[in-house]
Each structure stands twice: as structure tokens, then as C-alpha cells.
Amino acid sequence: MTTVDGVSPPARLADPDEGISIEELGLAARNHALPLEALRYDVTPVGLHYLLIHYDIPDLDTGTHLLTVDGRVEHPLTLDLAALRARPRVTRRVTLECAGNGRALLTPRPISQPWLSGAVGTAEWTGTPLAPLLREAGLAPDAVDVVFTGADHGVERGVEQDYQRGLPVAEALREEVLLAYEMNGAPLLPQHGAPLRLVVPGWYGMAHVKWLTRITVLDREFDGYQNAVAYRLRSSADDPGVPVTRIEPRALVQPPGFPDFMSRTRVVRTGPCLVEGRAWSGHAPVTAVEVTTDGGVSWEAATLDPAGPEADGRWAWRRWRYEWPATPGRYVLGVRATDASGRTQPVEQPWNRGGFANNLVQRVEVVVTGSA
Amino acid sequence: MTTVDGVSPPARLADPDEGISIEELGLAARNHALPLEALRYDVTPVGLHYLLIHYDIPDLDTGTHLLTVDGRVEHPLTLDLAALRARPRVTRRVTLECAGNGRALLTPRPISQPWLSGAVGTAEWTGTPLAPLLREAGLAPDAVDVVFTGADHGVERGVEQDYQRGLPVAEALREEVLLAYEMNGAPLLPQHGAPLRLVVPGWYGMAHVKWLTRITVLDREFDGYQNAVAYRLRSSADDPGVPVTRIEPRALVQPPGFPDFMSRTRVVRTGPCLVEGRAWSGHAPVTAVEVTTDGGVSWEAATLDPAGPEADGRWAWRRWRYEWPATPGRYVLGVRATDASGRTQPVEQPWNRGGFANNLVQRVEVVVTGSA
Fold first, then answer.
1. What global pTM score does this model have?
2. A73, A134, A335, B1: least surrounded by Cβ within 10 Å?
3. ipTM here
């Protein structure tokens, strides 16, 4: 393990009433959120999908890029992009969400990428399924984890590293998992992992390794930084915690009416108001969506749009709608999703030291004015 | 003028030591900055170009969208996209920068969109020149300002408005000004003004009105919110100020080496290090670029790449390079551009109440380690 001194600030929680720091702002500026009005699109337009890039976007050449498959396999493989494109081609619509979504709204606030609620997006990912490639390489019977290495290189908490994540073999062999080289019908953009990335439907974004260079099969659990240190649900700094895995259910309101520039408070005219948005879960299909207009005191059922066909439906968000008879006053809108596993969104914050997998109900401030 | 009460916070400056507020963070999340490693691209890939959207991205239909030309013209016009596309077609490479770039680094900090240094991008804009269209409409001899109205609707400091900007007639008639319907060879994306926007090479971003619906010629100076109130250089709240217009010279370093995740401090190995980046000015061609590795105490000349052909060169950033013999230690890198008008970047902050047109030299923290 290579360490670098003097560049990584220590992990910490914000003091009570401590504003967002310039370092957090730096991350917020480069890691883009979905502007919430973009919840209107079934498939997020290029450039509006959220981005979380640990280090720099690497500068890779599609023409010479190679993917190596090695470790506990019978036949190590090396493939270029032409070889990957010659393999079976699949397109899947998948909603990705960052594991840290909502972190900046937690109390106390873990100091890291300061997401509000927009670390989400839905894309059409095209690539070749991973499982047949692993079977061709011949997984050893003692295979435990599959490690995916990206070309992005940097330092985190003093540890110099290429971004790497391990995935249990059973997850890596799921038929939905893709080695993707296109997004929304076009070659991957640099910031989304060009020329090759992993897509693991249902899992938080940290699993979908971008700028993929190597797939290594291990006979043990991967103990690299991003699995053993970073993406864990810990109650305190000395709790070893449990791994962050699948996306907890969440729904978001596409904010109705029009906004104030600075506060983003919404202005809605008196009268019937269609409140709509999206809901998703990586654990199981969304079965119910409820809307609140009083900050979580009372809830009304929303109508869920039918799920799409299997390839589009299970792993992508679903639209929901609610007819709100808006009368003058101030309101706090929110929405909560429940999935078939029984998971639902909390009205009080779930908290862990890293600020992960937090699906606290959103708060959208609305002023309803007399009809114009 | 329609006003809306109770949604707009008052204009203010941050208190000393006041952290970034949750409202500023909300703007930073939705208004994307250029990640600085993307300075490597001559043309910014889609999705990495900066975005500043005052209200919501509107939901417009290219098939039915209409542009109206009216006011002090002999022949008012209404054109659809097909009619605009049938007119002469031009592509120009243009660097756009937000007038508020750098605002969050000012002391005291004006509370608004909290840009660090990444509110910039360069695109290939394709569209039809504006001037012939205005001539066909027949400008009245008393024409003073041309007002461009966008479809984005919201509230700012209590004033409900469609985004509107006035441009002096002489600027509107410059041959470089385009009504653009494509960006980087593809139809405009929603967040960049689809289906039609204005491009005014050399001016800060506020002039390049997106989601364009109407062009109105006035026989007086436009006194709408974005000209008379928002985009002005004021020394204090009661100073009427002067309008924000063209882009001040600026250069940025493409940060060398690799970053720490949180602090973004750069790690560079001992040895020769190519420091490079981009420089631009809306006033006149960039004539000199100087690099500092000691936070502005001493300066060395960098090498400017030749400008491209006229269509690509004058209004787009230019690459510069500097060979730095990096030896172990901590450094603060920066760069300053000078243009043919004699304007240069300051080492001490220029300050105005809105935080506009501030081209303070950048600071890039670098740690040089022993060779690896």
C-alpha cells in the first residue's frame, strides 16, 4: 500500500452550525447533481445525469484500451474494445444513485461530497453481459470476490490508489451486470467511464466502476480501500461496519411551479396542481408511493405508472403522480416510496458516519399564491 | 412588473468566516462547473461545459417552437426551427464563461451562485447569424437595444420574470453573433438552451440567452431586471454601477499530477513536469501567459500555442505550456493572462458587490514527492 503524506485531511464530522467548507464546495462544483426538474425525463439527457468522480477523469484512448481478466480463472483474457463490441450486445435502462446522496442534509454532517438530493440519474446503458465473459475465463471453484479496477488514480485518506471495488461472485454473475461502452445510444463520454465501465443494476454508484482496465478474481474477500474502509455503514469511527450494497428505496418530487433563483422555493398558483416525480429501489420493485404536503405529518397515496417491459422496468425509476388541490399558503412537499421487500423511506434521518444509503424524505418548500 | 413576496432572500454579503450556506450549495449542485482536468480538451465534451440556469430548464418542443422578432422593426417576423435551419449555417468555436466565476473565493463573499474557478467551457456552436435576420426585419433608425427573451421563468429578488437581456444594437449586429441550434455537432441539449439560444462571442454568459422565444428591438436602453439590477459592477448596494459586458482575460492551470479526493491537493513526482492549461479574453487576443509556482511572488513566461484559424481562434481559449522542473516541497501554482488591450489578471482580488468579472489569479496547491 502506497501512502502519501500531507494531502488528505482527516475524516471528520462538521461541527454544529458549521457551514459548508470550501473543500466540500469544490467537490459539489465538479461532481454534478441532477437538477430536479430533469426528473421529467424518462431517460436523463446526457450532461444532466449525476457524476461522482473520486480523482480526475482519466485521459484514455478507445483505440488502444485493453481490458484484462485475470486472477482465479483458468484462462486469463485480454480484450480490446473491438473484441468487446463483437460480443453479444444488450441495452438496459438503469437508475444509478450515489451512496452518499442526501449526505449534506444530515446532522451531524459527514465531511465529504456534500450531496443534497440530486445524486441520481437514469440512462440506457449498452454493452455486453459480464457473466458469459467470466464463464469463458473459467472461474476457479474457490472464487469469492471479483475486483474491478478503474484507470482513475489518486489519494484518499493518505492511500494512493487506482479506484478499485470488489463484488461478490454471485453478484458479478447476475445476468443484468454489463460491461458498458455506450450510454443513451452514443459512445460513453469521458466523465461516465469512456471507453468501458461496469453497470451493476440495483447497486449504489460505487459498484459501477468507470474507466475499467482490469477484472481480477480473488479466492478471498477484497480488502482494498473502497470496500474495507470507504463504503461501509458505521455507527462510529471505530465500528468496522457493514458494506454499502443495494440502493434503498427513494422517491423524489419534480418540484412543481417555478422557482426563486436563490432559495429555490417554488411558487405555485392556486388550483389543481399535478405533483409528479420518480421512485426507485435496488432491493425490490416499488409497490407504493405516498405524498405529503405538510412536511410528513399526513400522507396520501400517489398513482404509480405501470412498470415498463422487463429490460426497462425493473432497474429504472418509475413515474408517480398526485393531484394536489393547491390553496394559498406555505407548504413542505415530500414523497416516500415503499418496495416489495417492505423497505420504506424514513421521516427521521437514518445516520451513519459516512452518510451512506440515507433515504430521508425530501423537503420541497412551496408557496401557493392567488391565481394569476 | 409582477412581484412575489416571501420567496426571495435579500441580497447580502457573507459574514466573515461564514461557511457556504445550504442555499449556495443548492445552486452549486445544479449549476455544473468544468472539472479542471477537462481543460485538456480543445472542445469541452458535452456534459462537462459549465451551466448556469437561473430558474428551471424549460420543457420546450422543437417541432412547434417559434421565434418572434418584433418591436422597432419594419417587418415583424415569426420563424420556426425549420425556417432558421434553412438560413445560412455557420459553426464557431466559442469559450463561454459565467460573469460570476470565482465569486466564492472573494472576501467578503457575495451570496449567490458560489463559483470557484470552473465556470467556463468551449463549444462548437452551429446556427445562423443574427445580423442578416435583423436587417431583413428592418431595424428602425431609432433602434437602441435588442432584447432577447428566454422561456425560463422564475423569481429573483421578488421580481417574477422570463429571463431577458438587452444587448446594444451595435453588438447584436456583429457578424459573429449566432442564433445557435447545435452544440458540438448535435442538437442543443435541454440544459444548453434547446431548441434555440443566442451566442455572443466575447461576452460573459449572461448575454447568451437560452431557450430563446422573442427578439424585441427597443428605441431605448432596456431596463429589465437582468440589465438594470442583476448584472452590474457596483461598489456598494446603493451604487447604480456599470453593466457587465465582455470577458476579462483569464488563464487556468490544468492541475498537474493526481489529486487527493477531498482537498484536491495535487501530488506531482519529482522531475520535469509539463504544466499546461488554457487562456482567453473577450476584449482582445491573449498575447502573454505567465506561470507562478510560488503563489504569485515570481513569474515565468509560458509558451502560447498558435491561435487557430479565424473561425476557431479569436473567440476560443488558447492552450499554453510551461516546463516546470519539480523538486520536493509544497507549491502554489497559478497563471495570468494578458491580452492585446493591455488587460491582465490581478494577484489581489478585484471586488464588487455582485462578485462579477473577477479574474483573480487561480491557486493550485501542489505537493511534489520523491520520484516513485
1. 0.97
2. B1
3. 0.97
